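Narrative summary of target 7.
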Amino acid sequence: MNIVFLVLAIALFIALVLKNVPIVISTIVSSAFLLLTQQMSLYEGITKTYMTGFGNYVTNFFLLFMLGALFGKLVEISGAANSIANGIFTAFGDKFSILGLIITGIILTLGGVNLFVAMFTMYPLAMAMFRKADVPRKFFPPAYFVGCVGVTMTAPFTPSIQNATPIQYFSTSVSAAAIPGLISSLLKLVFCTLYVMWVVKRAQKRGEHFELLEEQTKEDILDDRGPSIIVSVIPMLVILVVLNVFKQPIVTSLFAGIIMAFVCYFNHMPRTLKAISGEIQESVFAGLKTISITAAAAGYGAVVAATPAFQEVTDFVLNLNGNPLLIAGIATMLMAGVMNSSSGSMAITCPILGEKFLAMGVNAEALHRIMVVASSTLDSTPQSGFVCNILDYSHTTHRQGYWHVCVVSVIAPIIETLLLIPLCAMFGLA
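Modeled conformation, tokenized:
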């Protein structure tokens, strides 16, 4: 019965989110329902378990969100976003501008840029491109997921935490199952890119257009003044160099990028201290709102993890029987769905399933790749803090944009997971 109530709590969470109830309220209501049905202390669950999960997330990522939002704001108000967008248009043309945006996301995240920092950076670029191509802003989330999540989180050789997690349990490397993994990743990338381009074209044929926000004017959004494209990309390159060459933490890299942005964009910034302060304040508020959404989801996840139902789900998932690779994929998917976290699901499934299946002689590289891809499926359900953040930041409701996110970040990776099993067998890894 505990599992039934857990499912109902998840359904309640999704229903509230789809009704546009603020994520903080949705998580607290869903947590309260779960605590009461699990016969746990409501007061202790909310004030301690939920708030501990919430607070720990803020402690760990506050600076990352603040600095990421500030950097994105500097890229936007300086006109650098317009300059880079013009460069992408020149390289790819109007017809393939979505492809250019996706490639930009791949480059940033392959360079080690955090997914949220990539969101803050890519959003102004996307909006500059979208208004030029008259693309509705609701297509930013799926394009972002294709470029920043779909490949760089799960493909061989990538520096993601998901690709690194199995190494300590399976004695593999980030290149595990390289050939089948690259084939499946390429197929997914092609499919998802073509899908986003197709739905954009279909929307334009229906007469949908780029939408101005309430606080924007046509004159604001059409201002193309900005630094040259070379100068515009220098701060981004500084972040990548400091992160990858000098091996500094992402926060340090962001500091360096922000300083360089002020230097490179100085002549294109607002001319008064009051105007600059106003823009910085706006970016801080955006960062606070963004981190509160994800922290709320983390608080809810902490409540879920503390319930008897979670332990029952864990026991069920880890004791499934059948084809080891298929079971590993299903178990990782289900755990990602319950936890709303790809890395969290792998932290639970890798040590237990690894020990079990490796002792049976299952190929470690195949197990590694399948579990990595499987972790990127049900972590993108509607109530996911990350999904809610992307939609909220792009001023898109679940009703407007989630289905497209679901196609590229849930359905496509599920298909890839199932495809990997015969691919691994084909290359002697199963």
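The CA atoms of residues 104 and 147 lie 7 Å apart.
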